[in-house]
């Protein structure tokens, strides 16, 4: 069993009452926010506090039981706490997804929740300035980790921000540029031959769509229903491209999320590139236990429009709302470097913002610009933050990849994907990941030492 994974002591799950709107005290609405605590390793009463930040999905008890931050907590005898993001998982009111209430979902409100949680934990355990706080997060919570340090430096001494896309971007063409590069990367089992086959396969799909021969696609790719017009065609190619995007982003984390496996299927001798796409689609369906793939745009719109709560998994409606009102991040394929279909347009994704949330395109663009103005994009001008990225991960294109100052440090890991450093360490980890983990551990130890010397400890 890897060190830091699944200790026997159970974590404590509980809820804190939070204001719906931290920035308007005349609004007395509240919601219950879920958190976990693991005291097992804590050197009471002066040990540090490691805060794990939740994001665009439900959090579980493993947020204080397993992972890189837990291994570091064992070493430094830290109190482990984690906070689920407002409006995701169980941290939401029954009417939270309505248009009227989803407006209280934002990264700014989430950071205010963290400040309020900091005060709650400090009071609960009678913490003092002797207790050094370090926060951890990956992906969107990686950005939150950096931003919590940036905006609340008096509360958190340092931050580890893994795979953090701190630069908001409306048309995120860079995502599929990295996907294309990774599909051709021999370090992870890709090849130029594989990338060419993917391009050729999607070109064949586009040709069938242009010729109106969509019944062939429905049959060959096991569509649940018939493709009804251009919106469904976009849905279809988007679903197919998502398999490849996911394989790159989460490379090595499951059999389907594996560039080597996908490239083997795409380059099988005597198979056309189109046949290769069919094989990849079938492998995806088998791994997910699906008998068919839903390509109905109308169903997707209905799903995103639904205000019914789902307390597990990713909050699809909530996250789409945040892309419309803060981040953009739309992964498009209108750039010639994209290996998929040019039907995956910016317009098709922006239209949903208006259709579902009544947010017009101009407003999305302004929100993205404001987010970068508010947080500093990929030049945040903070201190004591480690930005960790893997070169295989498409999200690295929006992160901090070079040291910004002596204490804003960038670690770029060769051959690793999204948030790879956050998993429990394993003997099978590539050397580049092992070295990165050592560098992170050394930096965390240095921070804790400097915090103590500042306190005269």
TrEMBL record:
Gene3D superfamilies: alpha/beta hydrolase (3.40.50.1820), Serine carboxypeptidase S28, SKS domain (1.20.120.980). The keyword ATP-binding does not apply. GO terms for molecular function: dipeptidyl-peptidase activity; serine-type exopeptidase activity. One of its GO terms (cellular component) is endosome. InterPro entries: AB_hydrolase_fold, Peptidase_S28, Ser_carbopepase_S28_SKS. Keywords: Glycoprotein, Hydrolase, Protease, Signal. Belongs to the peptidase S28 family. The keyword ATP-binding does not apply. This is MGC85068 protein. SUPFAM superfamilies: alpha/beta-Hydrolases. GO terms for biological process: proteolysis.
């Amino acid at each position: 069993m890897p060190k830091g994974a699944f200790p026997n002591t159970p974590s404590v799950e509980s809820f804190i009452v939070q204001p719906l709107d931290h920035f308007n005290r005349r609004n007395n609405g509240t919601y219950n926010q879920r958190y976990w605590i693991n005291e097992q390793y804590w050197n009471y009463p002066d040990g540090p506090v490691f805060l794990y930040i939740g994001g665009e999905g439900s959090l579980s008890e493993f947020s204080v039981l397993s992972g890189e931050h837990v291994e570091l907590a064992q070493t430094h005898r830290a109190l482990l706490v984690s906070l689920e993001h407002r409006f995701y998982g169980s941290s939401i009111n029954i009417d939270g997804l309505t248009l009227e209430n989803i407006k209280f979902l934002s990264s700014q409100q989430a950071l205010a929740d963290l400040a309020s949680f900091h005060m709650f934990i400090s009071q609960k355990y009678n913490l003092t300035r002797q207790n050094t706080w370090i926060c951890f997060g990956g992906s969107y919570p990686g950005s939150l980790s950096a931003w919590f340090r940036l905006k609340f430096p008096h509360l958190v001494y340092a931050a580890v921000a893994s795979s953090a896309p701190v630069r908001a971007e409306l048309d995120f063409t860079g995502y599929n540029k990295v996907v294309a590069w990774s599909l051709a990367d021999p370090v992870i089992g890709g090849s130029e031959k594989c990338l060419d086959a993917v391009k050729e396969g999607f070109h064949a799909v586009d040709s069938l769509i242009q010729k109106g021969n969509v019944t062939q696609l429905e049959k060959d790719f096991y569509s649940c229903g018939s493709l009804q017009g251009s919106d469904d065609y976009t849905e279809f190619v988007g679903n197919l491209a998502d398999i490849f995007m996911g394989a790159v982003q989460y490379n090595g984390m499951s059999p389907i999320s594996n560039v080597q496996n996908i490239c083997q299927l795409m380059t099988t001798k005597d198979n056309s590139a189109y046949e290769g796409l069919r094989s990849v689609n079938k492998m995806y369906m088998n791994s997910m236990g699906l008998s068919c793939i839903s390509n109905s745009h109308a169903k997707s719109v209905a799903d995103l429009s639904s205000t019914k709560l789902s307390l597990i998994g990713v909050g699809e409606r909530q996250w789409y709302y945040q892309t419309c009102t803060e981040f953009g991040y739309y992964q498009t394929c209108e750039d010639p470097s994209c290996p998929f279909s040019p039907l995956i347009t910016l317009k098709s994704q922006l239209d949903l913002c208006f259709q579902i949330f009544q947010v017009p395109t101009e407003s999305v663009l302004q929100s993205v610009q404001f987010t970068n103005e508010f947080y500093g994009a990929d030049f945040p001008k903070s201190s004591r933050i480690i930005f960790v990225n893997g070169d295989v991960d498409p999200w690295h294109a929006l992160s901090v990849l070079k040291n910004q100052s002596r204490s804003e440090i960038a670690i770029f890991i060769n051959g690793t994907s999204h948030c790879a450093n956050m998993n429990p360490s394993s003997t099978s980890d590539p050397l580049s990941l092992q070295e990165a983990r050592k560098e992170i551990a050394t930096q965390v130890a240095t921070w804790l030492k400097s915090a103590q010397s500042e306190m005269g400890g």
